[in-house]
Amino acid sequence: MERPSWDEYFMQVVHLVKTRSTCLRRAVGAVIVKDKRILATGYNGAPVGCKHCEETGCVRMQMNVPSGEKHELCRAIHAEQNAIVQAARAGISIDGSTIYVSIQPCVICAKLLINAGIKRIVFEGDYPDALSKELLEEAGIELVKYGG
After folding, report:
1. By CB distance 3.0 to 4.6 Å, which of 11, 94, 106, 144 could disulfide with 122?
2. Residue 93 to residue 81: CA distance in whole angstroms
3. Rounded CA gap, 53 and 50, in Å?
4. Measured between alpha carbons, how far is 98 from 120 in angstroms, rounded to an integer?
């Protein structure tokens, strides 16, 4: 059996993490890594103590909001945001780390990742958000489209 590369290994973990998602539209997982060690994970779903979309229904679907628009009309916190918050709650610095995520970060997540000190983003699927890529490139963050 051939050992996976580090990118393959951490993307496999991302796919396991995203199985915890409660989003009705798209399951997303994120894993923050530094020095080949997992620092934090996150998936998209409602904030702690709040009802999940599985229980309430999806506001974005009900309003027919296209993907990549009006992020504020969602009960869920994004996987990247959840991973950042989990690291912060545990007092773990993610400065200089890599985040692996199952889809390209949106512009809101991109801004958070920039200010959190993430240096590399490995993502699988594309997301309709050109401003996100523009800001990440401007900030000098390495973007790697994973091909699996």
Report:
1. 144
2. 14
3. 9
4. 5
Helix (H) or strand (E) holding 42: strand 37-43
How many C-beta atoms surround the C-beta of residue 78 within 10 A? 24
Query: Mind listing the pLDDT tens digit of every residue in the chain (148 residues)?
Result: 899 999 999 999 999 999 999 999 899 999 999 999 999 999 999 999 999 998 999 999 999 998 888 888 888 999 999 999 999 999 999 999 999 999 999 999 999 999 999 999 999 988 888 999 999 999 999 999 998 6
Q: Which residues contact 125 (CB under 8 A, 6 or more apart)?
A: 102, 103, 104
Amino acid identity at 101 = V
Token pair of 43, please?
């998936």
Positions marked catalytic: 80
Compute the distance between CA of residue 109 and CA of residue 81 in angstroms, rounded to an integer.
6
